[in-house]
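Lecture notes, unit on protein representations.

Consider one protein chain, 241 amino acids long.
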Amino acid sequence: MTTDPRYYALTEATWPPASTRGLGPVTLRDGQGGGSRVSAATVHGTASDAEIAAAEDAMRAMGQDGLFMIRDGETELDAQLAARGYAVKDPVNLWTCPAAHLTDIPVPRVTAFCVWEPLAIQREIWEQGGIGPERLAVMQRVQGPKTGLLARHKDKPAGAGFVAIHNGVAIVHALEILPHQRRCGMGAWMMRQAAFWALENGAGELAVLCTKRNEGANGLYASLGMKCTGQYHYRILQKGH
């Protein structure tokens, strides 16, 4: 599998850091507590050990751990960071499909909605899943078309999610189902709702990111006919290095 590089730019546009800056070949991200995706540094081309060390110092100055995203094919950087004491963190799959693929079945009434700004119940669902104010701030930073997802099952709130569009691709982030509402098909209905919204807003493709260890979510996306078309992982500096 070779990941299309445009997906990395799409991910950043739909889940953006507070700011970025270059330090030699390294791009630094100020995530302001919003998680790995908005905090990880990336390397364009190659970086010397001295340039990696300078990036580590800059990340510490921002109050962040030494953290790099390793994109598909960056095997030399992966080995270089491993030698410096970096451990693999959160390998991620990218799932994609034509948005129209998930609009063959209408979403039943009062099952899934698109709502923006987020309602209090969406915020509560996200908070229960560990998606707090820092990640909500990431959603607010998105400049393009965006919406929130809200699912209901048996007249009770069931799940929340976020969708944003960049360059014709709608990417789903922060998809969270309440524990007692899982295994009821809510994730599938939310993805279908996202697909309808994508088409209505000019996006012909739907994508979602998922850690490889999340077997349930990966199974869901596969069952919907989505294809795993990309991957990446992080390297985080271990304490004592």
